[in-house]
Specification:
Layout: E1 17-21, H1 26-36, E2 40-45, E3 56-59, H2 62-70, H3 73-79, E4 85-89, E5 95-99, H4 101-105, E6 113-116, H5 117-128, E7 133-136, E8 140-145, E9 150-154, E10 159-162, E11 164-167, H6 174-180, E12 187-198, E13 208-214, E14 217-223, E15 229-236, H7 242-245, H8 248-258, H9 266-275, E16 280-287, E17 293-294, E18 297-299, H10 302-305, H11 314-331, H12 335-354, H13 369-383
Parallel strand pairs: 1-2, 1-11, 2-7, 4-13, 11-18
Antiparallel strand pairs: 3-6, 4-5, 8-9, 9-10, 12-15, 12-16, 13-14, 14-15, 17-18
């Protein structure tokens, strides 16, 4: 893609109003760029407040340039976890290999960032909270499209009309389901389940990861500092355990059953899992859709093209997708043309990143003894080799120039037509 200077037709009398569903990563990022290009933006989030906590995530490749253009790169560098070592263990807890995280993840040491998901979400929210309207503790109930816009009825009962609606509500997107049908139509299950939770750091770990493997099972202790410790339990499951996805106790039972009798620190991790208040359990999967929009409603981030945690690219795709969707809307007043341009310009980048699971990203979790030995041999070789260059998929998209900031006074227009000066919380 050749970089171009964008110009928005500021003579157009009507300010485009946009509702974004979801206030995690792609939602606030999209809100920033849309507001900057002159749109009146509302973000609705079912949680009562911005969500904090969460496991570490990566920002790398093209997404680094996006956050630089947003002006938040220094803050993300301050929040960088800076993991120094990743140690792989065998079934008995013996060391297989110890190497730099960048050698394992295929990133660029000194350039890629790893931050707590909650830190990235908080930085994005702080960037836009005074410029866009936030409706926390609410969500979209129904969408009714017409020639003049999208009539939205919220779960709270309020009703509003917007020019456009964007679903940025994650892999299990309610916006996607209401428009395109059940998730099963678009979900590509990758054969793994995982549980993530925090537990006391009684191991003396600091800025490092320890990963234990047996065929079809993996456990990791991830110390993001001296005190905060994230525990990961991952296992191969041929069919997705639908019965457990909506029932936390069934999730705990399933994980405990799978890891029964395992060595190393697994018994203590399973016990901590039982008591964890922040357990996050899900399947490793991708969202693959033939189209990311329908009429006046589009999807961005995991809602449209979740790549799975196995690629390490979910947050980066969300940031890049938000930027590119705004670029398309800024250069195409017609939303149909804009959404088509967004898909055309981003789909290959998405496909390359999703293909990482087929090109080796899942080799960290071998399912057979032979595959595990091959993986361990590869890791031992990496100890004596320089870090691998960044995977091309991370940086395969050349960003167009950002749209010029518009002189937009949010007090003059709101999505409902009334004056407003501060976001609703």
């Amino acid at each position: 893609m050749t970089p171009t200077d964008l110009s928005l037709d500021v003579s157009t009398p009507a300010t485009r109003t946009v509702l974004i569903s979801g206030a995690s990563i792609s939602g606030p990022a999209l809100a920033y760029w849309l507001h900057r290009s002159g749109c009146a933006v509302t973000v609705v989030e079912k949680a009562g407040t911005p969500r904090d906590g969460g496991y570490p995530i990566d920002v790398r490749g093209t997404a680094i340039e996006v956050v630089r253009r947003m002006g938040i790169l220094p803050r993300l560098r301050d929040a960088h976890i800076d993991s120094r070592r990743c140690t792989f263990l065998d079934a008995d807890g013996g060391e297989v290999a110890s190497l730099s995280p960048s050698a394992v993840a295929g990133g660029v040491e000194g350039q890629d960032l790893e931050v707590r998901r909650g830190d990235l979400a908080a930085i994005l929210h702080a960037l836009v909270r005074d410029d866009v309207e936030f409706l926390f503790g609410d969500s979209i109930g129904t969408l009714d499209q017409s020639g003049h816009g999208v009539d939205v009825t919220f779960r709270s009962g309020r009703r509003r009309t917007f020019d456009l609606v964007v679903g940025a509500d994650g892999m299990h997107s309610a916006t996607r389901e209401s428009l395109f049908g059940p998730e099963e139509r678009f979900h590509r299950y990758l054969g793994y389940c995982f549980a993530i939770f925090t537990m006391p750091n009684t191991f003396g770990l600091s800025h490092e990861v320890m990963m234990w493997n047996t065929p079809g099972k993996a456990a990791a202790l991830y110390a993001v500092g001296d005190d905060e410790l994230h525990a990961f339990l991952t296992f191969h499951q041929p069919e997705p355990p639908f019965h457990a996805l909506r029932h936390p106790e069934a999730q705990r039972d399933l994980v405990a059953t799978v890891f029964a009798g395992a060595g190393w620190e697994i018994p203590g991790m399973v016990k901590a899992l039982r008591d964890a208040e922040d357990l996050f359990f899900d399947t490793a999967g991708q969202i693959r859709m033939p189209h990311w929009s329908s009429g006046r409603v589009a999807l961005v981030g995991d809602a449209a093209y979740a790549p799975s945690f196995l690629t390490g690219q979910g947050s980066s795709l969300a940031l890049v997708g938000a930027y590119m969707l705004t670029h398309a809307l800024a250069t195409n007043r017609d939303h149909i043309a804009a959404f088509a341009a967004y898909e055309r310009d981003v789909r290959e980048f998405v496909a390359m990143n999703q293909a990482l699971v087929d090109n080796g990203a899942a080799t960290l979790f071998p399912t057979t003894a032979r595959a595990l030995e091959r993986r361990n041999t590869m890791l031992r070789g990496l100890v004596t080799l320089p870090s691998a260059p960044a995977r091309p998929a991370h940086s395969a998209l050349a960003l167009p120039e950002a749209p010029p900031a518009q002189d937009y006074d949010r007090r003059s227009v709101s999505p409902s037509g009334a004056a407003w000066a501060r976001p609703v919380r």
